[in-house]
Amino acid sequence: MSEKRIIKCPNCGVFNTNKEYCTNCNTLISHQKKRELKEQDSKQQRVEEAIYEKENPKLAERLKKHPFFLYRIAGWILYSAIMVVSAIGAGLAWFIAMIAAG
Ligand SMILES: [Zn+2]
Questions:
Q1: Which residues crowd ion ligand 1, with CB under 5 Å?
Q2: What total number of domains does the chain contain?
Q3: Whether the predicted model's global pTM rises above the 0.85 cut
């Protein structure tokens, strides 16, 4: 890594040698670092999307409208499960509220 990389800061025009951030204004100027951060971002985004899909109750809605009937059945089962869980959750919340008020 003896190679010198001189990058002109796109923000303030100062030349920086072997720096990831501009010494003058702290702007990220390393292309490699930029790419790394971008990759991290998209990876993080994919993870968040996967979690969202998993936890999103709308999945049941989507499944219920699926052209394939087995998926629609799964959608209804999922929908019922979500309903039961939220009913229990609401009941529990009410119960706790009652105790707290009591
Ligand atoms: Zn700068």
A1: 9, 11-12, 14, 22, 24-25, 27
A2: 2
A3: no
